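Continuing from the previous page of notes. For each protein in this section, the sequence appears first, followed by its structure tokens. Read the first protein now.
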Amino acid sequence: MGIYVKGYRQRAAKIIAVVAIVAASLLLCYGLFQGKLNKVCGQLNSYQSADYSIIYILNYCAGVDNECNYPDSDIQFYTGADRKQRLTVSSIMVEEGVSYNLKYLDPLTFLKPGEAYISQTVAEDYCLDVGDSIFTEYPYSHELILTKVVGISQTEFDFGNPSIDNNIGMVFLGVNDEYINTTRSKAILFADHPATNELSAFPQIISKVINKSENNDTVIFQAIPVLVFATFFSLTAVALAEMAFFSKSRKPLYRCYLKGMRRYNMAIIPLVERMAFYFFPCVIVQCIISARMPDSSITRAFRIIPIFICSAYCIIMFTVDLHRFRRKGI
């Protein structure tokens, strides 16, 4: 009796080990790449929610709709008057007399001098909230000007640098007349359709063109290594679990055959075991992970890859078992 109890305990320990291997591998993969996934999702969702399709960097202002001044990094921002902590940001300034009719630019419509909208990343990185103030230094003077944060924009990243490692946020500024009158800055035009015809009346005005779709594709391309590692971890989990449990578990099947079990039914037994030890733990882990990840095409792929690999492996091994039994004349 003790021998049977010991055998059951050993088998139970193997089952627990297999489930733990699968779960630990998938959770480790998520833990290693959670930060990159969040950055990818942030940028993809930012592009998806924006209603512009093309951005034109202009050499000078043309006064067309949805155009802004583009100081970029000419203006410096600090969290305190001591200048100890500088904000790593890019800036856009309201242009007077211009109409803003894109939802993406809604924060600029009622932005007053001395006010600013900041991107979500800036708010998180520098612990800023609505009602706080930042200190702004314009190139025409070393004096710091108090600027009130009146809103936080869901625009998370600098559209000019679509890199998942880019930590440059955005600050949208109310107009500053002295800066406009003393500094020659570039302009930036957000357009929901190509504006080449509108800008053709202005000589040598276009400095750079940024396509939202190209930025989107660039970010997706940078996420490919994460998906490759997700595939690797999933295959490793399946391989380790197979070696831990199924490498020595075929003898009971031959005893089943001696008792008259059919070939198909014999192949069903390891299939059910693999489903129980690989597929279902994988699904449970991915459901847990899903609750902690923002939704995007990349996170959906990240969730589906392990499930697809586990299910495909179960089906492939079921076919292999059938073929093996047939070759052995079982």
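Done with the first. The second protein uses the same format. Note its length before scrolling.
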Amino acid sequence: MSWVSDAIDVPRETSGILVPKILGFLGSDRDSSPPRATGYHASAMFDFCPRETALVHRHFKVVPGKEEFSSTTLFTFKRGSVTHGILQNGVLAKMGVLVGWWCKLNTEERVEGVCPQDGGVWEYEEPSFRVSIDGTPDGPQWDLVGACDGILVLDGQTVGLEAKSCKTSIYRGLPKAFEDMRLIRDWYAAGGGSSKWHDKYARGHTFQLQIYLNALGIEDGVVLYLPKEPTQDDPPLLEFAVKRDPGVMDVAKKKIRLVAEAENGGDWRGPVPEGICRTPGCLRAQKCPVVNQCFSGDLA
């Protein structure tokens, strides 16, 4: 008896019956959008430019609203969530080094500490925070918010974790980028001084982790990278140690204060902040909607 049937003609090209449905669902399903707390998010503060915000409102009369993402971007978010879930719940939880709050699947049971090893399915709650900024109007929309990927206890040392995945081309340049990285607290260089993606990753993710360390009161941290296309020639993981620098938190707060000054009670006629980009050709400026107004001086 043959297990191979010649009665089925297997198509060699995709039929297009599934992919459009998946992307259509992601584009229309409101629950597909990642939950975002009201406020300024730590993950975006390195690239955040107060000058761009002020000029967009002044020139285009834009009113801030809900973030909109394309279906392909939402699918990328979901893949990232899966990677984080594997690392947090499938690896670090079983190692007994990830600490915080754990929720038992399909129950209301919550426990604090390391993940219980009782055979149940537990999911990690990422430590979140909300920091009020002096010198801004009242309201949660002016707060600095975020959630750390995890808090680890390694050999008695508490460590904040920021985990990222990236392309192999960027992955290979990270050791040199972290070696060359200088102080990043100077907000004029933050986000706008990078000409290469591995430099931007190293600075941006360190900046992000520094906010987490300061908000959560942790002295030490590690940025962990996973390659999206692992090869035998590359290490399976890369890690870079970070010491808490209060100056980085001051930079983030300053950015938000400058936006509040420019907002000027809602008319956006307050002082226009300086930009974070050094040239119109840097990675940050290439995607800025007001790069021409910014570098031409058209601020009226």
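What the second structure shows: The first helix runs from residue 19 to 28. The two ends are 82 Å apart (CA to CA). We return to this in next week's lecture.
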